[in-house]
Amino acid sequence: MLLWLSPKMSFLDVSILWYSVKIMKRKLTVLFCCLFIIAGCRGEQEKDPEQTAAQDQPAATVVFQGCRTCHQDVSHDRHHEFPCANCHRGDEQGMDEGAAHAGLVAKPAHPDTMGEICGACHPDAVGNSRESLHFTMRNEVNLVRGHFGADSELTGLTQIDPSPRPTTSTDLVDDLLRRRCLRCHVYTPGDSYAYTQRGTGCAACHMGFSDGRLVSHEMIGLPTDFQCLGCHYANFVGADYYGRYEHDFNNEYRTPFITRQEFIRPYGVEYHDLAPDIHQQRGLACVDCHTGHQPFSEKTGKKITCRTCHELASRTRDSDALPANVTIVNNDPVLTARLTGKTHPVPQMTHPAHEEYGEKVSCQVCHAQWSFNDSTTHLLRSDTDDYYPWELLLVQSSSTVENLLEHNLYGYEDELEPAMPDTITGRSMPGVWYKGFTERRWENMLVRQDRDGVIKVFRPILDLWLSYVDSEENVVFDNIEGSGRALLPYTPHTTGKAGMFYRNRFADLLNPENKIPAGQ
Question: N or C: which end of the chain has fewer CB within 10 A?
Fold first, then answer.
């Protein structure tokens, strides 16, 4: 708005004019606001009544039917998007919990039901799994039983007879296997530590668990290292791949110094962080080398070793002998990681020592950075209620034993009976298996010449002493040892570069005068 001001106008005239303009602006502002409100109201009146009614209604909720009525948070992968009853049985149309759960199979992947349920779609996978060493544990079963005098071999752990009252050394070792040693097999959900609880049967490797609870119903095609370490923890192959060595059991030899306060022990016992395997450092998972139930070539059936991939430069390239995830690219082997899809060039053996000692010395004698060396392992079955001698050995790498000791030593409720469950049937049986070691070390690897003449890394796998005290405090067996060699060849999963003094590990064994008798 332009105002023309005459030079003859007085100060009063200008003030009156300016005040009039302010009043006009205020009236115009009020006028525009009224027009806007009227237009808005008219617009509201012109809206579709049905549309307005629809907007006033609450947001629609997803209505589930069948099992999803209660289990709304269950999700499946795209390969298993079918009715719950296909695997869990029961009645999808049941109107209440009782009707819906009639005939329910809570654990369809369990060994007792996986053939019928998982095998309906995966018959070959289930059939092969049943015969695998992971499933039967037959190697470990027959190795330990044979060491203590058993004269027959078993096809699997389920053939081990229960021994409520052992009278022979074989009875005692059978009870040890069923209730203490074999707690990582597929019939049991594992120890109740944070990272060791899992499913049973097929679910042990192919479903994700966290703190004992199923994470989701989405199946895992290839097990990750987390699934593998759910069984291969403690001082067993697998833990060494990540550089983990368990602390001593005794409270005074564990770090940090143990108090009565709660703290996280995801694998049951604290561990030292040692050098992990070079393959793990490069990002390879267990399944990159262990491609099936056993490390055999999928094309030739030949056993896969370190030399299968790392010795191609010194012999005729045989692509059929390679694992399926190793291919020849520009005349060089390349491994494709099965979980990540990343490619890794495979270094070839070029050092002259491989040519000189390759047939006489195993790879890990030079390349292992450290190895498990637990000796001697003492195992006592006690049917008594005398728990105080175990106060400093409260942590036993067994949640069952630990919980029993914790309750009876420090609890205020009624004392529990000295008993622990059979890991195959789940039924409680009398007696508790306690464990201890003479020493636990890793610094000095045991290098010996095996019966086939090859120098290898050994560990005291069968250096076991067994004892048994019955409920009347009678010593039935006292530190019985097995027969045969306690040291067995072992492949430490702690691969790294060979040091400058690698020959010092085996030089004496090359001299016939200094050879150590095989197996000692």
Answer: N
In a domain, 389, yes or no: yes
Helical spans, DSSP H, in 344-481? 352-357, 363-367, 399-410
Both 133 and 163 in one domain: the answer is: yes
Least confident among 261-265, 314-318, 429-433: 314-318
Give the integer Cα–Cα distance in Å for 228 and 308: 23
Domain residues for the domain of 384 are: 365-514
User: What value does the mean pLDDT take over residues 47-64?
Assistant: 49
- CA dist 230 and 184 (Å) reads 8
End-to-end CA distance of the chain: 111
Does residue 382 sit in the same domain as residue 478?
yes
Instruction: Mark which of 189, 212, 241 sits at the end of a domain.
Output: 241
Q: Has residue 21 been placed in a domain?
A: no
Do residues 231 and 199 both lie within one domain?
yes
Structural domain ending residue among the three candidates 224, 241, 258? 241
Rounded-to-integer distance, Cα 30 and Cα 379, Å: 94
Asked if residue 333 and residue 454 are part of one domain, the reply reads no
Say if residue 469 is in the same domain as residue 387. yes
How many residues are recorded in the chain? 520
**How far apart are the C-alpha atoms of 231 and 140, rounded to whole Å?**
14
- Measure Cα distances from 401 to 163, 393, 408, 417, 506 in Å: 19, 10, 11, 12, 41
For residue 477, what are its two tokens?
Answer: 């067996």
Instruction: Provide CB contacts within 8 A for 117, sequence distance 6+.
Output: 87, 105, 108, 109
pLDDT in tens, 469-513: 999 999 999 999 999 899 999 999 999 999 889 999 999 998 765
Q: Where are the beta strands (DSSP E) in 320-445?
A: 326-329, 332-336, 343-345, 373-382, 419-421, 428-430, 432-441
Contacts of 306 (CB under 8 A, 6+ apart): 363
User: In this model, does residue 295 exceed pLDDT 80?
Assistant: no
Same domain? For 172 and 313 the reply is: no
Tally the domains of the chain. 3
pLDDT in tens, 159-206: 999 999 999 999 999 999 999 998 888 999 999 898 999 999 999 999
- Report, in angstroms and rounded to the nearest whole number, the Rg of the chain calculated over CA atoms: 35
Q: Could you tell me which of 466, 455, 473 has the C-alpha nearest to residue 433? A: 466
What residues does 456 pair with on adjacent strands? 448
2 has pLDDT over 80? no
